[in-house]
């Protein structure tokens, strides 16, 4: 994968120095993990695909659930990761109780990105689990993003 970060740093330091400084930084601050959370079809995988270029982040048709299990995407790559995105199964799927998964994923993430379709009036399926997630770590920042369907 094209790595703009490494391309920039290679102009000012060699590989060994880069790895040394990276290890020092990682001791002080972990690699941030951004948790994409929202109803099915709200644009979680689309955003990850757009931001990381990862074709493994499969975008659905917006009608049927696409992402069936959680997955982490590293940016720009697995070797020199500066940020991670956690793609998750959509809330509101019939027969899917996210309680257990929320508890497990909550330990791994530093920021929540909550995706909601701008026209979605039925947000209960996201509000209740989100309250649970907030309760588990009230200090963790939450970013809310709304996607609007474009008429062509
Ligand atoms: N107009 C518009 N469509 C979007 C946007 N983001 C996603 N979509 C469309 O919404 C549909 C669902 O997108 P996904 O990224 O698969 O949604 P998801 O939240 O990952 O869905 P699940 O994996 O089923 O939980 C696709 O048809 C996308 O093209 C957006 O910002 N604007
Ligand atoms: Mg998805």
What's the structural blueprint in terms of helices and strands?
Blueprint: H1 4-9, H2 15-28, E1 33-38, H3 44-52, E2 71-75, E3 83-87, H4 99-106, E4 111-117, H5 124-136, E5 142-147
Parallel strand pairs: 1-3, 1-4, 4-5
Antiparallel strand pairs: 2-3
Bound molecules: guanosine-5'-triphosphate and magnesium ion.
The site of guanosine-5'-triphosphate (GTP) has 20 residues, from α3.
Protein model, in words:
The structure is a single chain. The chain has 2 domains: 1-29, no CATH class; 31-147, Rossmann fold (3-Layer(aba) Sandwich), CATH 3.40.50. It has a 5-stranded mixed β-sheet, with helices on one face. With 152 residues, it is of the alpha/beta class. It starts with a helix and ends in a 5-residue tail after the last strand. Strand 4, helix 5 and strand 5 form a beta-alpha-beta unit. It has helices at 4-9, 15-28, 44-52, 99-106, 124-136, and strands at residues 33-38, 71-75, 83-87, 111-117, 142-147. Helix 4 (99-106) runs parallel beside helix 5 (124-136). The protein has 5 helices and 5 strands. Bound molecules: guanosine-5'-triphosphate (GTP) and magnesium ion.
Helix percent band: 25-40%
Spatially, the strands of the biggest sheet line up as 2-3-1-4-5
Largest sheet composition: 5 strands, mixed
Shape: globular
Heteromolecules bound? guanosine-5'-triphosphate, magnesium ion
Percentage of residues in strands: 15-25%
CATH fold name of the largest domain: Rossmann fold
Rg over C-alpha atoms, rounded to the nearest angstrom: 17 Å
CATH H-level superfamily of the largest domain: P-loop containing nucleotide triphosphate hydrolases
Give the SSE order as H and E letters: HHEHEEHEHE
């Amino acid at each position: 994968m094209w790595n703009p970060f490494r391309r920039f740093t290679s102009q000012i330091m060699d590989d060994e120095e880069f790895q040394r400084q990276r290890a020092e930084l990682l001791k002080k601050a972990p690699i941030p993990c951004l948790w994409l959370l929202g109803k099915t079809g709200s644009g979680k995988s689309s955003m990850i695909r757009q931001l990381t270029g990862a074709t493994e982040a499969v975008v659905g048709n917006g009608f049927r659930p696409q992402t069936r299990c959680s997955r982490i995407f590293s940016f720009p790559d697995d070797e020199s990761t500066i940020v991670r995105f956690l793609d998750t199964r959509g809330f509101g799927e019939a027969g899917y109780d996210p309680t257990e998964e929320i508890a497990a994923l909550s330990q791994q993430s530093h920021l929540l990105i909550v995706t909601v379709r701008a026209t979605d009036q039925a947000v209960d399926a996201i509000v209740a689990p989100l309250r649970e997630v907030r309760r588990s770590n009230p200090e963790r920042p939450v970013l809310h993003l709304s996607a609007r369907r474009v008429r062509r």
